[in-house]
Amino acid sequence: METTNKPLEKLNIFSFRGVQMRTFHLTWMAFFLCFFGWFGLAPLMTVIKTDLELTKPQIGNIIIASVAATVIARIAIGKLCDTWGPRKTYTALLGLGSIPVMTVGLVDSYEGFLLFRLAIGVIGASFVVTQYHTSVMFDKKIVGTANAVAGGWGNLGGGITNMVMPLIFAAFVGAGYLPESAWRIAMVIPGAALLIFAFVYYFFTKDTPAGNFEDLAVANAKAAKTKGTLGIAMRDPRTWALFLAYGACFGIEITFDNVAALYFFDNFNTSLATAGILAGTFGFMNIFARAVGGIVADKVGSKWGMLGKGRLLALLLVLEGIGIALFAQSGSIVGAVITMLCFAMFLKMANGATYAIVPFINQKAIGSVSGIVGAGGNVGAVLAGFLFKSSTISYSQAFMYIGVAIACVAAVVALINFEKTERITAETGQLEPVTID
Questions:
Q1: Is the pTM of this model over 0.90?
Q2: Superfamily of domain 18-432
Q3: For a tag on the chain, would you pick the N or C end, based on fewer CB atoms within 10 A?
């Protein structure tokens, strides 16, 4: 029995009751599975590198391709959420995204693998739907926490993928398949899971607590109000400040997801399984770290408003940058793991703090703002990917440069006033001052 058709004011993570909590759980589960498709290849790259005879620059291009397509996809998906609805948008994304995941094993060249990695990267836009859907299901008092928990548990898929995919690969090798065949067959598993969940999402969620867009009596009015939301979002300077911030936190997270196993394998001579476990530990922290960021941001916001949230985000970015710089200089595996866990905590908290601000930028363009900010994460990952592609820059040097860049972004975020701004309204097209409660 569904108790209310309004956004919830409380997040009970142990409840599946009502469309709000059911959607909350299904949306983070969908995002979790998307990580298996998106980064399922990352922990297997040592095998794929040998099979396809890839060079370091080629691997760098592949890392960039894995996140580049997501930039455009996230902006488009955000717009679709505003107009088409999150339920249909997520269903289509899961169904279409499953195809390149299941068929990537058909490639036999670097060029083919690069194109498939580009196509698979579109799945990363799933994050935008997750954040949109939780934003409309929960009250503003708790939306930061809800977004952070859903995003964090979904991001947990990045860590679990690094742990599980080598085991799936090993299972196929144990069944008698050669390594060059086993990695190809292993990718069918996450692809099939995505396809199945597309049907689950369609039949068991709704666009809003009151119902689906097409069923609501105000559907036509909703469409009129959301016309031009992308332009509105793009004209707001706060959107671009969060774009930079998310590039400095989530962008580095997915970059680290891509290179961590290789880094530990090459720098500390670990086994493939050990490298995967260490890399997975980084992602596994999403089970709580991103949620902590959202919870703290909501508490700071209730006391010091949006300005306080912005200052909190800047502080977390500074601490993240310092932690990455220390990680880059670690000469032992113990030191590397300790510093990795430290910067991971601040990075993931920054993720949560960013999307504790996003829903308040413009209530009529939540999807578009979420899409642009989410795209910032991937732009950050693309830029970081060029550092790891370079044949003259070591991975340790790349991490050091990233730490410095994050500190610079933190300074920019600290200068932005998230409390007040001018925005162009959808109804009048005129500038008006806005105060965010």
A1: no
A2: MFS general substrate transporter like domains (1.20.1250.20)
A3: N
